[in-house]
Amino acid sequence: MELPPQARELSRKIAGKSCVGGVIGLGYVGLPLVQHLCEAGYRVLGFDVDPAKTGRINRGESYIKHIDSGWITAAVKNGAFSATTAFECLAEADCISICVPTPLDEHMEPDLQYVRATAESITKTLRPGQLVLLESTTYPGTTAEILLPLFESTGLKAGEDFFLAFSPEREDPANPDFSISNIPKVLGGVTPACTDLAAQYYATIFKRIVRVSSPAVAELSKLLENIFRSVNIALVNELKLLCDRMGLDVWEVIDAAATKPFGFMPFYPGPGLGGHCIPIDPFYLSWKAREYGVPTRFIELAGQINTMMPEYVVRRVMEALNGHAKPLKGARVLILGAAYKKDVDDMRESPSLKLMELLLEHGADVAYNDPHIPRLPPTRKYQFEMSSTPLTAETLQRADCVLVATNHSAYDYEFIVRHAPLVVDTRNATRFVVEGRAKIVKA
Questions:
Q1: Which of 54, 107, 235, 336 has the fewest Cβ atoms surrounding its Cβ within 10 A?
Q2: What are the strands, taking DSSP E only, across 129-200?
Q3: How far is the C-alpha of 341 from the C-alpha of 371, rounded, in Å?
Q4: Dist CA 45 CA 127 (whole Å)
């Protein structure tokens, strides 16, 4: 099929690396994408509503732990990358990637205010020959039902004048085996020409492109990936509750099952779900499913189980303290790890924050340590005025309970168990500790 004139011109620019990339949202998804685009030879404009972020970028500084400042400094210096809060400059970009948050509101329903605001900004400057790619995780239908009508309200036609596709982000921060370039990139355009151009553009930075028939298929594929994890984590979390009652070690059970070389994939329990995907994405699909009158009971049950895990952990802390003749009220509880996962500085939706809230509500004296998060920044839900407590022998000895919430590699668990009077371990992080096991309670 012959491409329309605007598509041919953009294809020529992509092939010659003369097109300008635009990335909206310079966080954990957007900034790595910028890095790969710059390394591929594109000039990139970064957009963010936070002037502190754009200011630091233009000074050559990174604000994300696993992203090195060196490439930012070099890219800014040679003119390959610049950041701005001026969204009117979107007209300069030929290929625009949207990487903004898609959280839940207070009713646990999709909050697309950032996607809508971004789409409205693009609409004001949309011109012939631009490609727009939505990467933000969302429910199936978002691209076709929200972005497409807005963009076509300008009088431009998708697939002929401008081009639109959905391509979900796939990020695993701190995973040394996978950067975004070697994770297959799923994408679906609203027309074949949109898919072709999106595939051509992203093929310059992703090693494998997976085309699907529509944006909705790509949107749902992302939700399926994370719902799969959510459901399986809920299964082992529920199994943990049963093993607790039965006096069995759920981690030993899982390790034994994982020796089966086929038909089983190990998942592990924890204090609750964290990160921007797994705790949120299932609710996007269950919300959309109601429009079609289809109850998603399995998905919603998994969400309920995972959401209740911090309360279970606090109950285990209370029971462990009772075993030491101490009430939770007034007890000094030191939480190890504020990040949602091991060895990252990302605390989005971290269960540690919910644990802090619950412990404080019960009257505990709460402190935390995290080598990657020196101070807790305010979030949509929580505004804790806390800084990381140094992890010394004296700090551990003063605590009535040390609660392991995140299994950072930096933690010396033999040292921790040696000096702490009581350790409640939600991650099986102390499994190799030999001495002092009587102090350890698993939760």
A1: 107
A2: 131-134, 163-166, 185-189
A3: 13
A4: 17
Question: Cα(407)–Cα(248) distance, rounded to whole angstroms?
Answer: 22
| 202-237: pLDDT as tens digits | 999 999 999 999 999 999 999 999 999 999 999 999
Tell me the three state secondary structure of residue 12: helix
In angstroms, the first-to-last Cα distance of the chain is 59
The SS3 assignment for 137 reads: coil
- Residues in a beta bridge with 186: 210
DSSP 143: I
What is the β-pairing status of strands 163-166 and 43-47?
unpaired
387 in Cβ contact with 345 (< 8 Å): no
Helix (H, G, I), strand (E, B) or coil at 373: coil
Q: Is 330 left (phi over 0), alpha (psi -120 to 50) or beta?
A: left
Residues recognised as catalytic: 277
> Is the Cβ–Cβ distance between 162 and 125 less than 8 Å?
no
Quick: pLDDT tens for 152-161: 999 999 999 9
pTM equals 0.91
